[in-house]
Every structure is written in C-alpha cells, then in structure tokens.
Amino acid sequence: MKIGFWNVRGFNRPLKHNGVAHLIKHNRLCLLGILETKLAASKIQALLSRSFPGWCQANNFDTIAGGRILVIWNPAVIDLQPEDFSPQVIHCRATNKSSQLSFYISFCYGLYSVVNRRSMWEKLTDLGKMISIPWLIMGDFNCVKSPEEKQLGVTPTWYELKDFVDCCAALGVLDVPTTGCYYTWYSNNESNPVWCKLDRVLHNNEWLEAGLHCGAHFNPSGCLSDHSPGIVTIFDHTPTKPKPFRFFNMWAEYPEFLSTVEQRWNLHVEGTPQFILCKRLKALKAELKAFNMQHYIHISTRAKEADLALQDAQNQLENNPKNVRLRESLGDLKRKAVFLAEAERNFFYQKAKIHYLKEGDRNTKFFHDMVKRNAARNSITAVTRADGTIITSADAIAQEFVDYYTTLLGTESHTIPVDDGVFDYGPKLSSELTDELYREVTAMEVKDAIFNINDNKAPGPDGYSSCFFKKAWNVVADQVCRAVLNFFRNGRMLRQLNHTVIALVPKSEHSSSVADYRPISCCNVIYKAITKIISDRLAPALEHLIDHCQSAFIGGRNITDNIFLAQEMAYDSVSWTFLSRVLHGYGFPPLFIAWIMECVCTSSFSVSLNGPLHGFFPGKKGLRQGDPMSPALFLLGMEYLSRMIKRKTCNSDFNYHPKCEKLKITHLLFADDLMLFFRGDLPSIHILMECLNVFRDASGLSVKTSKSCIFTAGIRNEELDEILARTAFVRGEMPIRYLGIPLAAQRLSVNNYSPLVDQIAKCISKWKSKLLSYAGRLELVRSVIQGVECFWLQVFPLPAVVIEKIHRLCRNFLWNSRRAPVAWEEICHPKEEGGLGIQHIQSWNVALLARVLWNIHRKADTLWVQWVNGVYLRDASIWDWQPKKGDSPLLQRLAEIRDRMITEFGSSEAAIEQMTRWSTLRGLQTSKAYEYFRPKLARQPWKAAILKAFIPPKYSFIMWLGLRNRLATRDRLEFLHEEDLCSLCINTKESAKHLFFECPFSNYVWSHIRVWLGINRRMSTLHSAVKWLKKEKTGSSVHNKARHLALSCTVYTLWRHRNEFIFEGAVPNPEGLIISVKITVYRLLLSLFPHGLIAL
C-alpha cells in the first residue's frame, strides 16, 4: 500500500492538477495529503469529479483561511475516517480493505512562526495520549529537528528547534527510513540558495510493535513546487529464507543445559582438532533447537502463563489457607514464574544489545521495545541502484548487496611494492618485543580470550555466543583449547572457522544505496579468541612502533589529543600484499606474520539481510570491522603513510605551517581521518599529494576527494585556485566536525554545540519513557547521556546555556515531560547528601579540564602538550603564563581554573601540592578533582541506606521520593481541588506518613512483615524507619539485607497498590500484597545468596 503527501504551493492551476494526478497514477497511491492548496472550498467537488473521479476528500478549510490541507483517497482500496480537524493537522483512522490493517494517520502543515506552530505540537501531543495502535505522522512541518537538516542560509537556533524535538520525545516517535532527496525544500533563489528538510514521516512505537515496516521516498521537487513529494510505502515484509541458528544465553540457565551439551559433545569425529570442534558444534545445534522447543519457545507467552498460574494459586490459597496441596504447589509455581520471567528478560536483553541498565530493574518491556526499534532501523525494504532505479523485492535487494560486497571484498587489488627506506623513519621491533610475540600460547590464554568476549556480542555464522562456551566450559574446554592451540602450532586455519557474516548498519537515517550501509563483520567466537590472543601480543609493539601523531586504538593515548590540535573506516580497501610487506618492514618475525596472514587470507563472507543469510564468496582484500585484530593492523598500515610523509617533508621544498614548524608537525591521524598542515604553497602541496598517491598505489587506500577539504588563511585567490585544482578537494569553512567535535578558529558559538544537544535528543527519542520506571530512566540518563556529554566535556568548556538545554532534555525524560517533583540541581548530589549521584555537568567539565591543566604542568608526553609548550608557553610554566587576546579559548578557560585554584589555596605552590594529591602515576584522578569542584550539601549518610546496590533501583527511587516528601499524595495535590481522603481507608486525609504507616490497610501489612522478619520496632515515618535500619546491625547478613529489601519493597508495593486502586479500579487486597512482598524479597535474596539462604 502506498500513501503520499505533497506541499504543492497552490492547487488552482490545471498544470498542478495534472502533476498530482500523474503522481498518484505513477506511484499507485491510494491516499494523498495535498498541502497549502490555496483552494476555495466551493471548488473542491468539481475538481475531484474532473481529475480524481470516484475518490473522496476531507479538508480543514473551515478551521483556517487559505486552503491548508486537503486529503483525498480511493475508497475502493482504503477506508478513511477523519476524526479530528485543526488548523495544522487532519487526523484520520485508516483501514486497508485488502489486509484489514488499521492505523492512524495525521497530515500536518506547520505554520511559519515558532509561536504559531506550537498549537500543532500541542495537538499532536494530545492525540498521542489517546492512541494505542500504529500511527503515521507526515507532512510539511515548516521546521527542522537539527541544524544539519539545513544547508546554507541562517543556522537555526535551539529556540526554533526545541518544540519539535520535545514533541517527538514526548510522543516517542521516530523518523521513517527514507530514500531519495534528503533536503525536501529548496528556496529557488540562485543567488542565495537554501535547502531544508521540512517534510518528513514519523511513526510511533506501536507501529513497530505491530511488526510493520514502511519506507518514505522523496522525489525531486520538479517545476511545480519547491517541496519534494513524499511517497510512503507500507511493506508486507516476510523473510523468504529461514533465519540461521542462534544461541540464546537464557538456555544456559536451565538445569538440564549442561547434560544436554554433554550428551552430544562426545560425538566421535575423525580429523584435525579444528575440524572436530566445528563438527561437534554443528551436531549440537539440532539438540539445542529441540531443547528450545521444549523449554523456551514463545518465552513471553510462557512467562505470562506462569505468572497467571501463580496469581491464581495465591488467590485460591487466600480463600483456602489450610489447603496443604496448594501451599506445597505455591513454591514450585513461584520458582517457575521467576525463572521464566528472568529468561524472558535475558532473551530481550540479549537481542536489544543494551548494556547500560542495572540488572536490578527488569525492564522487559523496554528491551522488547528496543528490539522492535532496532529491527525497524536495520530493516532494508528498498534500495536505490546506481542508475537511480529503486528495487523493493527481497531477493533483488539481497543480490544487490551480495554483488556489491563481492566486488568490494572479493576482488584482489593490485599494488606496487613498498619502499623499504620508509621504515627507517621510525623504530623497528626490538628483540625483547620479538621474543614476546614468539612466546608459546597456553590453554589459560585461550580461556582468558574467550571469557573476555561480551556475552551479548552478535554471534558469527555458527550462531554461538561466548556465553555458550563460558557456561559449558567444563564440557567443551578440552576440545576448544586443542583447536586454538592447533592453529598456533601448525599455522593453518580451517576456513569454516573463518567464515564471516556481514551485518549491515545504516550510516544515517537517510541510507538508500548499498554504499550507505556500514558492513560489520560478525566472526565466530573461536576465531575471535585466536585474534584476541594475537592482538594482545601486538599491543606492546604498537606503543613502540606507532608515531604520536596517531591516537586511535593505543592504550594511554587519547582521542582528545588530536581534537585539541586540530569514522568511517577504510578497512575494506587494504591490500593484503601491502599488509604483509609492512609487517616485514617493521621487523615482525615470520611465524607471527604467518599467523596474521592466515587469519586475514582465509576469510569468506555471507550477507545478513533482514535475518536470513545470502551469498557466499571468499575475501581477497580488506580488513574486517568486528575482528579484534583489525584496528591494530590498520594502524600499522597507516604508520607507513605517517613515515612516508615524515621522509618526504624533509625535502627543502616543503614549508611547515607557521605554528607547527617548531615541533615539525605535518599531520595528525586517527584511524583513517587525516589532517595535513603546511604553509599553503604549491611545492608543499605537491609533496603531500605525491605521498598520498604513492600510498594509494601501495596500499589500496585512496583519498575520498568528495569528503576532503582545504582550509586556508592569508593565501591569494590565485594560489588557492591552483591548490584546489591540484588536489581536486573543495574549499572548507570553519567550524568543521572532526571526530564528532566542532573545530573552530575562534570561540564556539552556542549553535556550534547543537550536535551535542541533538545527539542527546536523538538518544532520548529512541527510548519510550513510559515503558521504563523512574529508576530505569535515571539509569539511562546516568549511563548514556552523560557518556555523550563526557566526550565533549574533555575538550570544551560548555556554556551555561548549553548545560541548561541538556538539563532540560534529561529532566523532561526523567519525569516523562511532567512537572519535576525534585529540582535537577538537587538530583546532582551524592547519595549521602540526599541526591541520586548524577554528575553535576559544570563541575565535571571543570574537573576534566583540570586534568588537561595538570597534563600541561607535568609536561605529559603527548603531541598536544608539546605543541602548547612550544607555541603558547614557550617553555614557561603554565602557572605563570598569562593569556592574551586571541589565544586559544581552551587555554583561556584553563587559566581561569588555574587562577581560581590559586585564589582558593593561597598560592600556585599550594595548588600544585593539592593537585599532586589528586594524582597517580597515570595522571590526575578526575573523581578527586570533581569532589573538590562540585557544590556540596550537609552529609546525611543514612539516606544512602535506601540506595544500596542490592536494592532494585525502582524500589530505591520511590523510597527516595518518599523521604523527600515528593510523592504525589493527595495532600500535595490540593490545588487540583479534588478528593483528599486516603483511597485505601477513606477516613483520613492522605499524606505519605498516613499512607505508609498510619492507614489501617498499611498497618495490617506492616504487622505481618514485622512478624515475618522478627522486627519489634514499630515505624511511624519513612525517616525514622531508614534511621533505624542504618543503626540496626543485629542478625546475619541475610537478615540485614532482608530488612532493607522488605522496607523498600513494602513501600513500593503499597504505593503501586494505591495507584492501581485509584487509576485502574483494582480491589484492595492486603493479603495478596503481603504475599507479593514476601515473594519479591525471597527472589532477590536468592539472587544474592544462591547457595546459603536460610529460612525467614
């Protein structure tokens, strides 16, 4: 089914009528939204009868002047019921008559000003609250979501973007994958052209949950409008091939798992150790599939049925408490329900590949949601060929990718020999390092290599994760070690072990051609273990061989060193012959080179497309992203370029950049990102281009001129034109993005920080906050968003306005866009001071920059520190240096931090002494610096008792809100003028104190919990209860943890029970609540003390 929309900029001319009719006929549309028609309502019916006979229409002309939105549809194909009309939105319910697929669709046309558009965002937000089925939103929003969506013209400000960004975050909607034109509007002004992405298509989470796939294609605007028409295709996408075997980690938790493996593992096989291992792994698959069918198939259904069975038994026992059979069966039902719930969570946790949520918060629905979103993002339903044609057939798409990668990776590259003299411009391997490379590989190294592979890493072609080998190690260890050690002894790799699945990840939201997808190589665990051993031995050699101008993948070197001075990998083009030659040139021993080249040269590939595997072809060149060895090998290849440049620039014709001459800096490298520095004269550019061309001919790695720029200052236009002609590069303008960070010649403006804010907003838009508890959202804020911030905070002093934007995004996500009950500044305090341990951004920024200041002080052995000392300090002390106007904004900020410390400590000597206390041999510890710089409150250590690691975060979070009196009890909602009596007893005004301790309902619950745990003290408030817990140390460790868990769990369950009664009409059930608390506490204690839990 195909749906379209188009801002036609007036629909009164016959030429435009014909253009729309052609769009419908050519694309076989059944529904079209026509925007900015400028039609009179009286003309619609005649136009419809003449140009679109038999079609129906709906419009919003009664709500706003100017003929804004007209929707037309073919009633023979689609049943459309318009439900809401507003000046900027027509909202409809649509049903495909053939498939009976039902969904909502909203056509939008945003007004021109920020203020006038706000009613559109409010309308969409209101509609979203009432929608629980799939929903598409499409149209001309007259607004972009990020500065990157506008080309030329005035850069949009955050004020112009934030309403759209906030609306998308509140609705949890995502962009539909698009092809065709990225910029959907063109200004048609040749002297001042501007391109913008104003038109787009969004879908809600329910669209993914329904398993629907769709794609949007934007045609060129043509001569009839300045907007591109959008065509949305809803695919009935079903894989035509079976999906390959995959080991799910939840299987390993079943009691019979090891016996199942052991029975099949003793299969007698003749052959080499590698062959025997592969045969046994293959034979085991059938057993594991049967094992899955018996115990785990339809895991969500099984988990739900087990939970319902447990609840039913609990209800029966409540009515018949003396029934011995029921009491005996309850324990088995409880264990089964807990086991299957954990299995379901682990299943989706593994598929979602999210590693930043705490184990204590199950978040099964969230993981399920992320699995759907990842599947939709990576689903490929259409591809644009080189000739511009679009293919949608699954088989044709698969063949297109197989042909592309067969040409890219399966075609041998012809290169020239390397110049052995180049290797003399840097160190070679020492005898000590060579001896370490030769050292015999042990079985313990094999085990360590496998056990260091993440359990949830995507498996290779054999389908086994590292979790399988870890859990079954006692059974499989002997054969695994024999196979790996066999490789290192005879230097031969079984090709079956080295087969690779190419997984396709879109480089952007606008990926359309095969080249727009990044190939990630999924290798078998056994192969990864071999190359991890090799790469671990390579690490010391890299530190010795690689020049300081390279920062990637080397321990102790920082990506920010390159950013201070100044990714898509080119792995797939590296010549294998070149790789072998450079390894010999650096002095690697022949046996070690043979190991590496055997791993590289025995590779073969299949392409994974929407699940099934397609094609098979041997590799002939390139390194694999996903192979642990590839980063180190790529660095060694790029080091040859680095030494070649060093050798060529010794030529007297080369002229250094004025600020690089003292240290002889000519270039910086981070993986395949290269920055070259020179004075800007033709002889110098000739030398550098000669280096790049010779390197291309030797390695197969060529410069992408379309992505390469020249940045100049103080050069005459004639000279610049000659340089551009010689290089075929384009002239660049500051600021630029380097390694994801903007570089500018002067202080960055607030708009230059938009990529940071936009990246955080995109992170948030991926997560549907209503599927997470407060604690889950808090953990995402802490782990992911602050990880994004940290990268920037190491490099730039963030302006206060940018920090406030980040706070706003985090605050809205944490509180689900509701009014925040606790100020963000209060959250950003340690737990002992009543906060939640979120880092205070401004203080963390200062702490990270203080580390930079310390590196300059101690003259750390980095290229950037050497450059600062040479260019700015001129060998003076950073403590005496005074910045001048025009100096680096970063250094000016470092001077401010230095002056603050001198003022607060009394002298530079005292400040240095203090920073020395914060430091180790590895440098300044930012955690200690942060502790000094952050704002502080009075310590209340007892408050940290509720935030223990063993207490599930969602319980701790409700306790934390309760202690601050920030739960939405009715005494705090008096401004709503609603009933304020306690919903559980209906006798007394509801407050946190009453609800949790004074209410007869909660009193009854507590009396049973106290008896159960042997607690004699009667608690009257949350504060007194937590203080008592802090002081109470009697009993075993199990009892202490049980008391903590019981308090948090009871408070959480009472609060949830109260909300279910108010909002869902649940019946108060104190006995069920008590059983629920006991089961939860037992389950948590079992996870803490699996072998030593005593009866409570």
Automatic annotation (TrEMBL):
Residue stretches making up the Reverse transcriptase domain: 486-743
- GO molecular function terms attached to this record: catalytic activity
PROSITE patterns named in the record: RT_POL
Name of one Pfam family that matches: RVT_1
Q: Which InterPro entries match?
A: DNA/RNA_pol_sf, Endo/exonu/phosph_ase_sf, Endo/exonuclease/phosphatase, RT_dom, RVT-Znf
PANTHER family membership: REVERSE TRANSCRIPTASE ZINC-BINDING DOMAIN-CONTAINING PROTEIN, REVERSE TRANSCRIPTASE ZINC-BINDING DOMAIN-CONTAINING PROTEIN-RELATED-RELATED
What name does UniProt use for this protein?
Uncharacterized protein LOC105180271
Phylogenetic placement of the source organism: Eukaryota, Viridiplantae, Streptophyta, Embryophyta, Tracheophyta
